[in-house]
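Sanity check

After download, print the first record. It should look like this:
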Amino acid sequence: MNLYSLLAQIPLTLPADSIPTPAQDLKALKSLSFDELINRMVSGLVEFAIHLAIAILVFYVGKFIIRRLFTITATILHRRNVEQSLTTFVLSLIKILLYFILIITVIGILGINTSSFLAVFASVGVAIGMALSGTLQNFAGGVLILLLKPYKIGDYIEAQGFAGTVTEIQIFHTIICTPDNKSIIIPNGGLSTGSINNWSRQRYRRVQWDIGISYGDDFATAERAILAILADEPLVVRAADVRPEDDPSTDDTDSSSASAADGQAPRKSWIKRLFSSHRRRLLEHQRQTEAAIRALTQNPVADPTVTISALADSSVNLTVRAWARTSDYWALYNTVMRRIYTELPSAGISFPFPQMDVHIVSTPS
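Expected structure tokens:
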């Protein structure tokens, strides 16, 4: 008979009568003598004390390791220039998870069955998830916003029927400040799944003015006067003023390259040289990719233009377009609108207003 045959004959379940009941345990204790009871209690206390000492040691060692991991993670996130809101969220999540694992480990060392605790936590988590489904959706939306960054603090956005400057990005909601200084709290769930108009994302914006002049006024004269106003404004950006931006990846070049150019290159091990060459190849590939993208992307900035957009009932409508930096949008719009209103009449251009001609026809009596 081999080993597998012997293992096959071993019963996998214990008979019901082999499991002691509380009454049987009490009867067994009564059958013990006083010395045996004292010895059993002492051995139990000693065993519990050993487990307790091990649990305390594991708790403090685990607490030290968690603090070290917390510090290392915080340092890495700080060096990577991760946003403060995302840094706080990640550190809090890591700390909670590690302490939960540590507590479950300590409870297991003390001899307490952890499966019941896990089952209770799981059932409580399901109940909380069902009760706070909307809040969890906002939580997931906040995580997506912090990771994908469709907007950041200081951007002027328009979403969910509100427009304003982002002042705070929290886990469950985003706070924006409207131009009339009202704080609007928008849940992150709708922001992560809805449309967002981020006015601050692009560097340049096109400014447009709609102006009506009277029928009979010279369009060429109005065009020259308006273009002269725009030419006199320093906030107007023209196509010739836009230069290709410096490649940001050049700032990340290896410092050893600069030292080598100065003739003071330090000696490196073959491992460092291998990683340095690999990093230089990655940076070169990134620069080539960004150059190709810039070559394919056309510059949207154009020179100011004045066109006739419509022949309305009482006016000839002109559309004036110019480009400005996003931060100068409203300053340029208000300044040019004021100058058009005050300077065009001196060039012989008049602004009409809706009017109606009434003809009275007399009938013979």
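If your output differs, re-run the checksum step. Summary of this record's structure: The first helix runs from residue 3 to 8.
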